[in-house]
């Protein structure tokens, strides 16, 4: 499994909103984070549609989080931005595979997928706001 730029940028955009008290202009975030503005806008549209943020127009407009940072798991954000969080398509389409019932590797792929989901479910936007030393001490 490889997390795409879209997924990584979505995490950075939402973390930046959280660091700014939950509200900020996307232009400022895109510049600070080094994310192309048009790409940041497209990602933000996805995040708004998913209910993670909402936008306001006008002079003091921008985006704001719809929940507290601790209420967003990295898993739910990545599931919104990525086509899949599985390590192998075997576990995702096992029902269609004629070898699934006798495949010795399928349990391994399923276990790895569960590990990935569990890992990203343990962390929230609030965790991303911590310093590097604090974050490193909380990792398994």
Summarize the structure.
The protein has about 140 residues and is mostly helical.
Order of helices and strands: HEHHEEHHHHH
Strand ordering within the main sheet = 1-3-2
How many separate helices? Answer: 8
Approximately what portion of the residues adopt beta-strand conformation? 5-15%
The quaternary structure here is single chain
The low-pLDDT segments are: none
> What's the CATH H-level superfamily name?
Winged helix-like DNA-binding domain superfamily/Winged helix DNA-binding domain
Tally of distinct domains: 1
Level-1 CATH class name: Mainly Alpha
How would you summarize the topology of this molecule?
Elements: H1 5-19, E1 23-24, H2 26-33, H3 37-49, E2 53-56, E3 62-65, H4 74-81, H5 89-92, H6 106-121, H7 125-128, H8 132-138
Antiparallel strand pairs: 1-3, 2-3
Helix pairs in contact: 1-2, 1-3, 1-4, 2-3, 4-6
Distinctive features:
3 strands, 8 helices, mainly alpha, Arc Repressor Mutant, subunit A, 140 residues, three-stranded antiparallel β-sheet
What does this structure look like?
The chain is mostly helical. It has a single domain (5-138), classed as Orthogonal Bundle (Arc Repressor Mutant, subunit A). 54% of the residues lie in helices and 7% in strands. It is built from 8 helices and 3 strands, in the order αβααββααααα. The protein has helices at residues 5-19, 26-33, 37-49, 74-81, 89-92, 106-121, 125-128, 132-138; strands spanning 23-24, 53-56, 62-65. The protein has a 3-stranded antiparallel β-sheet with strand order 1-3-2. A hairpin with a 5-residue loop joins strand 2 and strand 3. The model has no long low-confidence stretch (mean pLDDT 87).
């Amino acid at each position: 499994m490889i997390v795409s730029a879209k997924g990584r940028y979505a995490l950075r955009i939402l973390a930046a909103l959280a660091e700014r008290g939950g509200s900020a202009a996307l232009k400022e975030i895109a510049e600070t984070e080094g994310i192309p503005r048009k790409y940041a806008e497209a990602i933000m549209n996805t995040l708004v549609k998913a209910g993670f943020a909402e936008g306001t127009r006008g002079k003091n407009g921008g985006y704001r989080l719809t929940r507290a940072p601790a209420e967003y798991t990295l898993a739910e954000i990545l599931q919104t931005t990525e086509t899949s969080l599985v390590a192998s398509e075997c576990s995702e389409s096992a029902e269609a595979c004629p070898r699934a019932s006798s495949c010795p590797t399928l349990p391994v792929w399923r276990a790895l997928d569960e590990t990935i989901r569990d890992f990203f479910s343990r962390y929230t936007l609030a965790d991303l706001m911590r310093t590097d030393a604090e974050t490193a001490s909380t990792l398994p």
